[in-house]
Write a structure and sequence with these properties.
Blueprint (H helix, E strand, L loop, with lengths): L7 E2 L8 E2 L3 H27 L7 H20 L2 H26 L21 H4 L1 H23 L5 H17 L10 H9 L3 H16 L25 E6 L3 E6 L5 E3 L3 E4 L17 H8 L3 E6 L11 H20 L4 E6 L1 H16 L4 E7 L17 H14 L1 E2 L1 H10 L2 H14 L8 H7 L4 E2 H13 L2 H4 L3 E2 L2 E2 L9 E6 L7 H8 L6 E6 L18 E3 L7 H7 L1 E3 L4 H11 L3 E3 L12 E2 L10
Parallel strand pairs: 6-7, 6-8, 8-9, 9-14, 14-15
Antiparallel strand pairs: 1-2, 3-4, 3-19, 4-7, 5-18, 10-11, 12-13, 15-16, 16-17
C-alpha cells in the first residue's frame, strides 16, 4: 500500500480500520511539535524568571500526599487487610485476563466491569470492539474501583479526611484515564495517524497560548473566547448603571412593559463569579425575562477586587453592597420596600443581611428569594473538602501576600468537582485532537473568573464552612449577633437536585433556620443549569411540596413534579405578595443619573 494515499488497514473483531500515515509528513509534524513544545516551556518559565509565578500548588500537592498517606496508614496497621486488598485486586485482574483469552479464542466473554453509561470518555466503539483497548479500559476501571474501595473501607478514618481522600482519588483517576493519552485512546490514535500528527501540533500551539493566558499556569479554554463580547451578545439586556462605589456598580434595567410592579427587585449575585450568569443570551437571560414580566430590576455588579480591597469583609459587602443598593433604589424609584434575590454566596450574604436587619429593625426587604444558597453548612457540598484549619491557613497566607485570592484558584476548585467533564474532556479536545472548543456562553462565563478580597474570603471560609456560625446563631456582624429565626419575611428557597456545591439536602436544612414562611422548591439539573432554565426551553422540571418539614427524602418523595421552568411559578409568588402596578420607570430619569450603559465597567475587568 502507498503510504501517501491515506488508505486504511482493516481492523480486527469489528474494530475501526487503522489509518496509514504519510511518514514524511508525520516526521515533519513531529519536528514542528518539538518547536511548539519549546514555546510551551517558555510560556511556563517566563513568570518564574520575572518573579511573577503564582504560589499554592506546592501546598495543594502536600495536602493530597498527607491525606492519602493517612489512608495508607490505616491499611499498613493491619497487614492481614493489606493482603486481602491485594488479593482482591489480583483476582479481578486474573478474571479480566481470563476473559481476554476467551475472547482471543473466539468465545463470547462478558466484561468484568463496564463504564457508567453517562461516561463519555469511552463512547468510541473501539473501546469495546478492539481487544487491546477493551483490556486497557477495563484494567483502568478495575484499578479505579479498587482505589476508591481502599478509601471507603479504611477503618477509623474521620469523615472529613475520608471525603478529601475520595476527592483526591477522583482527581488522580481522572488524570490517569487511558482516554487522556494518544497511545491508549483509539479515537486519538486514529486521528493522529489520519492527520499525520497535525492535530498534536495544533494542540501544542493552543497549550502554549493557554499557559501564556494563565501567566505561567494552564488556563484551559472551555469556549471560543472570541465568540462573545460582553454587552453585545452576552450580558446585553438594556439598562444603565445608576450607582457606583468602591465594591459595586448598581444596574437598573430598562422597562419592557408600560406598567411595572410597584415593588422593585434587587438581585445580589455571587462575587465568586460575574453577575451575567443571570443575563446570558436573550433566550437564557433571567434578568431580561423578569423585565418582560413587568419587574423593575436592579442588579449588583461586584468589582473584580485587587490589593486595594484586601480589608473588605462580609460587613463591607453588606453595607457597601446591599445597603448601598437599597438606598440607591429608594432614590431612583422612591420605593422603600423591595423584593430581593440572592444567588449562591450572594444568597448567603443576603441571609446574613436579613438577620442583621431583623436584629436592628430594618424592614426594607419584604420578601427574599434564594437560588442554590446555603445558610446551614452542616451538610455542605463537595467544596467542603477544601476547608479545614490547615488549608484555610495556607490560603490566608497566600492572600496576605496579594490581598486577594486569585480567581483561577476558585475556578480550578469548581472545575475539579467535575474533572472528567470540565478539565480532561477539554484537555483532550484542545491539546490532543487540536480542536478549538465551540462557542458556549455558559462556559465563557465560567472561565471569566474573579478574585476574592482576603478579609471577605477568610470570613466566609471560617464562619460558614468551617464553624457554621450563621445557622447556630453565633455569627457576629456589625456588632450584632445574628439569629435567622428572627427573619420572618416570606422566602422562596430554590435548590437544584444535582447540585454539588449547595446540595438540595443542605438547602432543605437551611430552610428550617428561618422564622417566617419558606417555600422550598427543587429544580432539575445542577447549580447553574437548574437556575438558568428559561420557560421557552422546557428542558428541566421542578418540584413543589410546600415548607421544608421533616426530612428531605420524605419531602421529595411526596413532592409534585412539574414539567418545564420554575420561573413562572416564582413570578406568581412574587406578584401575589405585592400586585400593585405603576408606570414603568426609566433608568436615569429619576434622582440618580445614568453613569454608564449596562452592563457597566466593573464586569469588563479580567482577573
Amino acid at each position: 500500500m502507498d503510504r501517501r494515499t491515506g488508505e486504511t488497514s482493516a481492523g480486527a473483531n469489528g474494530a475501526a480500520e487503522v489509518p496509514v500515515p504519510d511518514l514524511d509528513a508525520f516526521a515533519q509534524n513531529m519536528s514542528r511539535l518539538v518547536e511548539e513544545y519549546g514555546k510551551v516551556t517558555a510560556a511556563y518559565l517566563k513568570p518564574i524568571e520575572r518573579g511573577e509565578a503564582k504560589g499554592g500548588q506546592a501546598d495543594e500537592a502536600s495536602e493530597m500526599v498527607k491525606t492519602l498517606g493517612r489512608v495508607a496508614e490505616k491499611w499498613v496497621s493491619d497487614p492481614r487487610k493489606i493482603i486481602e486488598a491485594q488479593a482482591s485486586l489480583t483476582g479481578d485482574f486474573l478474571t479480566l485476563w481470563s476473559t481476554m483469552l476467551k475472547r482471543a479464542g473466539g468465545e463470547e466473554a462478558k466484561p468484568v466491569i463496564e463504564p457508567d453509561k453517562r461516561d463519555a470518555r469511552f463512547a468510541d466503539p473501539d473501546w469495546s470492539a478492539h481487544p487491546m483497548f477493551d483490556f486497557v479500559k477495563q484494567a483502568y476501571l478495575i484499578g479505579t474501583r479498587w482505589a476508591e474501595s481502599m478509601v471507603d473501607r479504611a477503618e477509623d478514618l474521620d469523615p472529613h479526611t475520608r471525603e478529601k481522600a475520595r476527592f483526591y482519588v477522583k482527581q488522580i483517576a481522572s488524570a490517569l484515564s487511558p482516554s487522556n493519552f494518544v497511545a491508549t485512546n483509539p479515537e486519538l490514535l486514529r486521528e493522529t495517524l489520519q492527520q499525520n500528527g497535525e492535530n498534536l501540533v495544533r494542540g501544542m500551539k493552543m497549550l502554549a497560548e493557554d499557559i501564556e493566558a494563565g501567566r505561567g499556569e494552564l488556563k484551559i479554554r472551555q469556549s471560543d473566547p472570541g465568540a462573545f463580547q460582553i454587552g453585545v451578545n452576552i450580558a446585553s439586556t438594556p439598562g444603565k448603571v445608576v450607582w457606583r462605589n468602591d465594591i459595586m456598580e448598581l444596574i437598573q434595567y430598562a422597562p419592557a412593559t408600560e406598567t411595572v410592579l410597584k415593588r422593585p427587585l434587587l438581585i445580589v449575585p455571587p462575587w465568586i463569579n460575574k453577575f451575567y450568569i443571570l443575563d446570558l443570551n436573550a433566550e437564557k437571560s433571567f434578568i431580561r425575562w423578569c423585565v418582560a414580566q413587568g419587574l423593575t430590576v436592579f442588579c449588583i455588579s461586584w468589582v473584580n477586587p485587587d490589593e486595594r480591597h484586601a480589608g473588605k469583609d462580609f460587613e463591607s459587602y453588606m453595607r457597601e453592597g446591599v445597603f448601598a443598593a437599597l438606598e440607591a433604589i429608594e432614590r431612583a424609584t422612591g420605593e422603600t420596600k423591595v423584593s430581593a434575590i440572592g444567588y449562591c454566596v450572594g444568597g448567603t450574604l443576603l441571609g446574613v443581611t436579613l438577620a442583621y436587619m431583623a436584629a436592628v429593625g430594618d424592614k426594607r426587604i419584604e420578601s427574599a428569594t434564594f437560588f442554590t444558597t446555603q445558610v446551614d453548612f452542616a451538610q455542605a457540598g463537595e467544596l467542603s473538602v477544601f476547608v479545614d484549619e490547615e488549608q484555610i491557613r495556607a490560603v490566608e497566607e497566600q492572600m496576605t501576600k496579594s490581598g486577594y485570592l486569585d480567581g483561577a484558584r476558585m475556578a480550578g476548585a469548581f472545575n475539579m468537582l467535575r474533572p472528567n467533564d470540565l478539565i480532561w474532556s477539554y484537555a483532550v479536545n484542545n491539546y490532543l485532537k487540536g480542536k478549538a472548543p465551540t462557542p458556549f456562553d455558559l462556559l465563557y462565563w465560567n472561565s471569566d473568573s474573579t478574585r476574592m478580597p482576603a478579609a471577605n474570603h477568610s470570613f466566609y471560609l471560617r464562619n460558614c464552612y468551617l464553624e457554621n456560625k450563621l445557622s447556630k446563631g453565633e455569627m457576629v456582624v456589625g456588632g450584632q449577633r445574628l439569629d435567622l429565626k428572627k427573619v420572618a419575611i416570606p422566602i422562596y428557597n430554590l435548590a437544584t437536585r444535582e447540585d454539588h456545591i449547595a446540595p438540595a439536602r443542605s438547602v432543605f436544612t437551611g430552610s428550617q433556620c428561618f422564622g417566617g414562611p419558606v417555600d422550598y422548591i427543587v429544580a432539575g439539573s445542577g447549580h447553574i443549569a437548574g437556575v438558568v432554565n428559561p420557560p421557552g426551553k422546557v428542558k428541566y422540571q421542578y418540584w413543589t411540596g410546600g415548607p421544608a418539614r421533616g426530612t428531605y427524602e420524605d419531602w421529595i418523595a411526596a413532592a409534585q413534579e412539574h414539567p418545564g421552568s420554575w420561573w413562572p411559578h416564582w413570578f406568581s409568588w412574587v406578584e401575589a405578595q405585592a400586585p400593585k402596578r405603576v408606570k414603568a420607570r426609566v433608568p436615569g430619569a429619576g434622582k440618580l443619573p445614568a453613569l454608564a450603559d449596562a452592563p457597566g465597567t466593573y464586569v469588563l475587568k479580567k482577573a
